[in-house]
Amino acid sequence: MTRPVIDVDHVTKIYRRYARRRQFATLKSALLGGTLVRDLNPDETFAAVRDVSFQVPAGCTFGIIGRNGSGKSTMLKLVAGITKPTEGHVRVDGRVSALIELGAGFHPEISGRENVFINGIMLGLTKREIATRFDEIVEFADLRDSIDAPVKTYSSGMYMRLGFAVAIHVDPDLLLVDEVLAVGDEAFTHKCLDKFAEFRRRGKTILLVTHSLGLVERFCDEALWLDTGQARGAGDPRRVVARYISDVAKSEERQLAADEAKTRRAVATTTEAPPAEAAPADPPAAGHEAPADMFLATEGRWGSREVEITDVTLTGEDGRPGHIFQSGERIDIRLKVKATAPTRDFVFGIGIFTAEAVLVYGTNTGLEEYQPDDLAGEGEVRIAIDRLDLVEGTYKLDVAVHKLEGEAYDYHRLLYSFRVKSHTKDVGIYRPAHAWSFSPAIRFKPAGQRGPAGQR
Amino acid sequence: MFHNLAQLMRYRALIQSLVARELKARYRGSVLGFFWSFINPLLLLLIYSFVFAVILPNRSPDTQPYALFLFCGILPWTWFSSSLLESSNVLIGGGNLIKKVLFPAEVLPIVTVLANMVHFLLGLPILALFLLYYQHASISPIEAASFPLVILVQLLLTLGLTLILSALTVHFRDIKDILSNLITFWFFATPIIYRIQDMPVAYKWLFDLNPFTHLAVSYQEILFFQGPFGHWRWLLALAVASIALFLFGYFVFDRLRDSFAEEV
C-alpha cells in the first residue's frame, strides 16, 4: 500500500481560555521569569479534537461531517498546519491549498489584479506561475470587467469567487475545503464542483468539511464523522452518513420530547387549581373554562376532567413511540383516557397544526358520526393515519374529549409536537400522494444521477 | 528557530509584494497619492521648526540651522516609532491570515518595518535637498560609507523590537496602549530635539542605555555635524546588541508562534 497523503495519528487539540486577571498576573512573571509559555496556565481547557486518527490515501476524496462545534474545522486547520496538535502527529505530503476562508488575504484597497498576485504568492506560487495562470483565474472567477477595480468595491459573491479561483489554481496536491460551497450562487457552485471533479480525475486528494450530506455521499470515497471532537464513524460515506442522520434524528427526538415535557409541566402547574372552585379568572387557556376564542388560544389544557386524557403517544411504522416521522409514513395517535364516572356523552377529537398554528386538519368522532354509547373506567383511543402526507416541518397536535354539544371534559391545546422529515424539499403543508409521468419525448436522467435534492 | 529563520528567505517574494501592497494601499484614494511620503516628513519638519524657531527658540549656535538638525533625528525616529506602533497591532489586524491561511506570521511585523523603512528612504532625498540648500553638506567618504551601516543597525533593532512586541501584544493587548505613551516619552528621552551634549551629565549613563540615542547621534554626526564620525564605537556596540536583540526577538516570536492562531 502506498503512503497516505494525510496521516493524522491520535491527534488531540486542546484550546485554552484565560481569565483577564490572570493575564495581568502573568505579564510580569512572564517577562521577568522568561518562562513565557509555561507560565500561561489555562483556567479552562476545552478539547476541540480528542484522539482522532485517520489516513487519507492519495487521490482519495475524504469528507468530514458532524454537527456545529464538533471539531471539523479544527481538524482541517490541523491538517493545514495552521494550528498545531496538542498531542499526536499530523503528517501531510505535498503542496496544500486550504479553502478555509476565501480571500482571507485580500486587501480591500487594491485592485483584484494585485490581490490575485499577492494571494497567489501567499499560497505558495511564484510571480511567474501566477502570471501564466492569471487569465485562467480571472476567467474562472468571471471577473474580467472588474479585475482592476479595488476589491472593496466587489460584492461578497465576487470576493468569494476570486478567492476560490486563486486558491484552486494554486494546483495543490491536496485541497482542503471548508464549507466554501455554501457561499456562491447555483452556477458558481456547479463550477466549483466541476473543478473538484477535475481534481479527482487528476488523482489529487481532497479533504472536504461540509454539512451537505448529499455532497459527501455523491462525492467522497471515504467519510469521517466527528462528534464533540471524537471520531464516531469512518469509512464508506453512505454508511457513515446514514449513521450520522440517525444520530441527529435521535437527538432531535430527545430535544422534542424535552420541549414537550416542559410545555406540559408548565400547563400542569397552572391547572392544578381545585376544580370545585369557580373557574380561575386569569390564567389564559387553563382551568375549567375554554378560552373565549378557541383559535387564538396558545398551549393550554382545560375541561371538567370528568373524562381525562392521561397520556398521548405517537407511534410510527415501527410501533415505537416517537416524535419524528417520515413524510408518507404511517402514524398512530394513541390517547389513554380515564372516566371518573361512566358517561354516555363523549366525543374524541384531534387537530393537527403547523408550527405557525395554522390548522392543517381537525376531526372528531362526532363529525364522523360515531354515536357514543358508553365510556367507563380506563381505555385507549387510537387514530391511525395511514399516510402522513405532510411536507417537512414541525407540527403541533390538539387532542380533546368533550360532550356532544361542546363542553370540554379535557382539552389539550397544542401540547404535543412532532416533526415530519422528508428527503424531498417540497413546499407547502400537504403533500398529496402523487406521481409524475412523461411522454416519450420528455426524458430525464435515470435516478441516482440527480442532485442531492432528488428523491432517493 | 534557525530553520524557520532560513525559511524566511523563501518568503522574500511575499514580503516584497506585501511591502509594495502596503505602500500602494496606504495612499490609495488620496489625491496626492505617493507624494504624501514626501510631504509628510516635510510637514512634520515645518511644525517642529515653527515650534523650536518661533515659540521656543533654540539659540544654541551648534544646532543651526535648527530645522536641518531636527530633520536628521526625526526622519529615522518616525521610521522607528511608526514601526513599533503599527507592529503592536499587526498580528491582531492580520488575524484572518493567521487563522485561515497557512502563513508565516513573522512576515507581518517584518513588512510593517520594511514599509516604514521605504518611507524613511523616500524622506532622504528631501533631507539631501535641505543639506544642499543650507550648504551644510560635510559628509566625508567614511561617513558616507557608514551611513548604510547605521540604517542596517536601526533595521535590526527595529525588527527585533517589533517581533517581540507583536508577539506579546497577541497575549497582552495592554501593550498597545502602554506603547503609545512610552513612545512619546522615548522621543523626548532621545537626543533628537536637543544635542547629546545638552543632556544632564549625571544621567548620561541612563541616556546611553537608550539604543536610539546612539542611532540619533550617529545620524546627526554623519549628516549634520562637522568633523569625524566619533560615535562609531557606540554604533558598533549597538550593532552587536541589535543582532542579539533580533535573534532574541525571533526566538520569542517563534516560541509564541503556535499560540497566535488561537489567541488572535
Total DSSP E strands of chain B: 0
The helix/strand order of chain A is EHHEEHEEHHHEHEHEEHEEEEEEEEEE
CATH architectural category of the largest domain in chain A = 3-Layer(aba) Sandwich
Q: Give the mean pLDDT of chain B.
A: 84
CATH topology name of the largest domain in chain A, in short, is Rossmann fold
Structural class of chain A: alpha/beta
What is the tally of helical segments of chain A?
9
Largest sheet of chain A, described in full?
7 strands, mixed
How many domains make up the coordinates of chain B? 1
The radius of gyration of chain A is 30 Å
Shape of chain B: globular
End-to-end distance of chain A, in Å?
Answer: 35 Å
Helix content of chain B: over 70%
State the oligomer.
Answer: heterodimer
Low-confidence stretches of chain A: 272-286, 449-456
Measured by residues with Cβ under 8 Å of the partner chain's Cβ, the largest interface is:
A-B, 32 and 27 residues
At the fourth CATH level, what is the homologous superfamily of the largest domain in chain A?
P-loop containing nucleotide triphosphate hydrolases
Distance between the termini of chain B: 22 Å
Overall pLDDT level of chain A: 81
Helix/strand/pairing category of chain B: mainly alpha
Helical content of chain A (DSSP H or I, runs of 4+): 25-40%
Features:
heterodimer; A: 456 residues; alpha/beta; Coagulation Factor XIII, Chain A, domain 1; 2 domains; seven-stranded mixed sheet; six-stranded mixed sheet; 31% strand; elongated; disordered C terminus; B: 264 residues; 11 helices
Explain this structure to me?
The complex is a heterodimer of chains A (456) and B (264). By secondary structure, chain A is of the alpha/beta class. Chain A folds into 2 domains: 6-246, P-loop containing nucleotide triphosphate hydrolases (Rossmann fold, 3-Layer(aba) Sandwich), CATH 3.40.50.300; 297-421, Coagulation Factor XIII, Chain A, domain 1, CATH 2.70.50. Helices cover 27% and strands 31% of the residues of chain A. The two termini of chain A are 35 Å apart. The model of chain A is unreliable at 272-286 and 449-456 (pLDDT under 50). Chain B is an all-alpha fold and 264 residues long. Chain B is 77% helix and 0% strand. Chain B has helices spanning 2-10, 12-27, 36-55, 66-93, 95-100, 107-133, 141-171, 174-188, 204-209, 211-223, 232-263. In chain B, helix 3 (36-55) packs across helix 6 (107-133), helix 4 (66-93) runs antiparallel to helix 8 (174-188) and helix 10 (211-223) packs across helix 11 (232-263). The longest helix of chain B is centred in the C-terminal third of the chain and has 32 residues, at 232-263. The mean pLDDT of chain B is 84. The chains are: A alpha/beta (456), B mainly alpha (264).
